[in-house]
Structures are given as C-alpha cells and as structure tokens.
Amino acid sequence: MSGEFDVVVAGAGHNSLVAVAYLARAGLSCLVLEARPIAGGDTATEELTLPGFLHDSCSTAHNLIQSSPTLREDELGLRDHGLEYLRPDPVVHVPFPDGAWVTQWRDPERTADELARFSPRDVVAYRRLLADYDEVTEAYGADRHTPVGWGPSLAERLAALPDGDAWVHRRAASAWEVIRDRFEDGHVRAFMLWMAFMTMQPPERPGTGMLAYSLVYGRQRESWTLPRGGSGALPAALIRVIEARGGVVRTGVRVVSLVLEGGRCVGVETEDGERHLARRAVLSSVHIKHLIGMAPREVWPEEFVAGVDAWRAGVSMFVTHYATTEPPRFAVNGGGVSSVAAGTPGSVERMLRLGPEFREGRVATDDPVLLVLCPTVADPTRAPDGRHTLKVVGFQPYELPGGPGRWDEIKEEVSARNLEQLRRFAPNLTDDVILARTVKSPLDLERANAHNWHGSCHGGDMIPEQSGARRPVAGWAEHRMPIPGLYQTGSTTHPGGSVSAGPGRGAAMVMLRDLGTSLEEVVASGRPAR
Fold it and tell me: What is the pTM of this model?
C-alpha cells in the first residue's frame, strides 16, 4: 500500500484515535494500524472471563476527559456516535478494619456528613480543599489541553492567581504533607491518601501535593464517571467518527519499524513486511521505549536517546477480573451498600508503605491496598441479566528479585490474598458467587499490551523529569519527534496517562498547524486542510 493515505498512524489507543478524528475532520485521509486484535489500547473492553461479561481490561473511570473540549464542547460529535456517560451515586465506598467507613456521595454535603462522624474540623477542611481547588481547576484544565510551549506554563498560570504563592508551595509538597496539615482524623487521612493515590503516584513523594486536591475534587464533581457499555465505548465512538470521514482502522497489524527517506519519516513497515507510506505525516502512539528501536540508533539525537534510556515506568497494577452473581456488599448501619467503586486503604501507615514497597521490589500481601470496581452496579449492560463484572486491583512492583518472570509463579497466591482482603469487608463474595476469574499480573499487563511497559498503564512515572516540558524528553515535548515527519501522542506525551484526550487533542493541534490549518478552524468549519 503506497501513499494511499495522507497520515499513517501506529497504534489505536484512545489518544491516537482522538488525534485521527480531528485530522479526518480536516479532510485528511488516515490509516490506523493496531497490533492488538481490538482497538482502544488501555480503554478496551473485553470478554476476559465468560461470554457476555464485558470487562474493562485497564481504565474504567473516564474523569479527566469530562473537562476536555473534545467532550465538554463535543468537538467531534461523539454523542451522536453513541457515547454516553454515567455518574454513579455513591461515588466510592471506603471501609476500614475497625468497622468504620467513609462513603463519598455526589452531594458534597452528604459526603461532609460522612466525615462529620470522625471530625467536625475535617468537614471544614474538606469543604475548604474543594473550594481551593475550584480556584485553579481552569488553570490545570488549560495546561492539560494545551500543547507544551503553546501558552503559559502551568507554573505561570498558577502564579498569576491571587493565591499564587500558596499554590507554588502546594505543588512542591507531597500529597501526604497536604493531607496531614489539613486533616486530623486517621480515617479521613487514610481516605484522602487513597484518593490521592489513584493515579499511582506514591503520596509521600514531593511534587504530588496537587493530587490531594484534584483526585477527590474530580470524583466529587463528576463521580466515578463510566461510559455506558464499557471503557471501549470511547474508542468505538471515535472509530465511527473516523470511518464516517473515510478513515480506516485495522487491528491485528503490528508496526515494527519506521520507513525513512532522505532523513524524513514517510511511513511504517509492519510485521508481515508490508509498507504503508504516508503523503503528509506519520503519527505514533507506540511507547517511547519501543519507538526508539524502530529506526536506526544514529538518527536519534544523543540527548533524546539519553532521555529515553532513563525513562522510569512507575507503579504497576495487579488485577483480577471476576464474573459474579452479585456485587460486593459492604456493611453500613446494620444494612449494606454496593458501589461502583470501593477501596481498602487500611490506614495512613499502610498507605505510606506503598512507595517504599514498590521501590524495593517487595510483594506485600499483608493488608493489601485495593481498588475494587463493579461497574455493573450502575451499568447492567456489561453482563448477562442479574450478573456482574468485578475488577480487584492491587498495586505491586513489576521488577522482582529474580526477575519479573517470577510473577507467573506467585500471581495466583497474590490474587487469593487480595480476594481474602476484599472478603473482610464484603463477606457475601463467597465461592458460589464467583463464576469465573482471570488474573493479570504486571507482567501479564505488559504481555497483553506492549504500551504497558513494565506493567505501567500510565505510560510511565509522572516524576518531574517526565512531566510537562520534559515528557517524553526535554526539547521534544511538543509532539514533534526528532525525525521530521514523525509525531508522537499517547501517555508518554504531555499531559501523561489516564483517559483525558489531552495527548491526542494536543497532537492534532500541532499536526494541523504544521499542515496549514488549525484545530479551531477545523472544529468550526470542518473544511479540508489547506
């Protein structure tokens, strides 16, 4: 296939599909090639246990994308292509070993009533925290949905606010410092730490301070936002947009190398030896660690190679998917509650062990911290009538003493310990309730999707060296790669992981400008690119 398309794309994760949808709207013909048998990357929904049980293989909540112009302004018409979001109530339920619990409800006053059982002072602190973050949410949203270098930096946006100096300090602090200084009760502190950890950044690490605000604020405002039918509803709607504009998405086609001519990237070569040439540009969402091996080492600048070589993966997940006859039921006030999302932080001390355990490569199965997701509580379309899908997520290191291959030996035991922990709080999940299960260790997550390098579903850690203008590498954060004609999107680019559409929309903005138009013009008129 030679030069049949304007743009050839390697990878069909949600960010590359977002970018392609804008490019297709601009009148550019696009071909998307995906190695996996299903599109969506980490927004895929699959039958992982039994027929008819639709499991989100990675992402379930789509919170960040709610503030994206892609969705907020419906720039691509995704609602017309079947995309619908649910906002469950309760948002999340967090039980504790001593029988106490915190339930976050969509009504912030009802959530405040939950916290009041522990500390009136913490109610005031919670309301203050939400109000404080409300003052900066536009600044964070603008940064997330603007390519690096296309406007003020996040630091500049925050400094321009009346309370700018305070936000400089909050950004530099750790999530634990923010929480410790504002809340007094151990249960509330543990609840807030668990919420802050939901992007899998250790809460004691400097630079995570804003997560103490943004995660709980986002859940309180948007709930644990679910696409009806599964996470894969997002890529499915994007593909319908692309195909309606003449684009082509092919799965089961693995890109193995870049085609270079005269120092420019002009296409890709697939595993079967076929070449797909692009008339205008090539877009990649291949993990940066793999992308660099798709062209001769000498074509990449030394600084770029050094940056990629130093890339760090971040905390990885350990997941067990279940098909069940009922959802977890948690004891409250002599009755019970079932929630789409639940968590087991244990205690402040337990939450603060997560980072050191990961760094030491230690598999800790005592009192495991869990994220428990049962989307069928709010969306029964994901399972046969009266049945449920359940995802139990732990947080474990990819690298183990003896190598990551050890996961194949120990994953069943780790899965059993996680279920044992969940049953402490939801004893109704007896053996007869569980119909089937599938275990995915950090190594399995990497095997299932090569973009989950070292088991990280967020593309890589969000340490300062890998954030903002340094993601993926300083000097190449504007989606343009060192090889002319090659662009990069996906979670290894700004603003990083999670379902935000930010990397995809940002890449489209850069590419459309380079191709002679703008995203704003394309959204407004839909005329072909000049």
Answer: 0.95
